Amino acid sequence: MLPEIKGEKYMTVLPEDPMILFSFINTKLRDNYVSLDELCDDMHISKADLVAKLGSVGFEYNPQQNKFW
């Protein structure tokens, strides 16, 4: 089930390109979220899928730094 805003369903659309996704997620983490779990919950995205997609190009999440690198 998708979340609703004012009665309309929406889904977070993430960049397809892994390098742009890397930059997008790290910017969100830096500016708005204290953890990857919080970002994923708020944006209604799968943490496992996100970690796998960024991991497929060599990035891993560092919870102490709250960023992928």
TrEMBL record:
InterPro entries (alphabetical): DUF4250
Pfam families named in the record: DUF4250
Protein name (database record): DUF4250 domain-containing protein
Organism for this UniProt entry: Barnesiella intestinihominis YIT 11860
Lineage, top ranks: Bacteria, Pseudomonadati, Bacteroidota, Bacteroidia, Bacteroidales
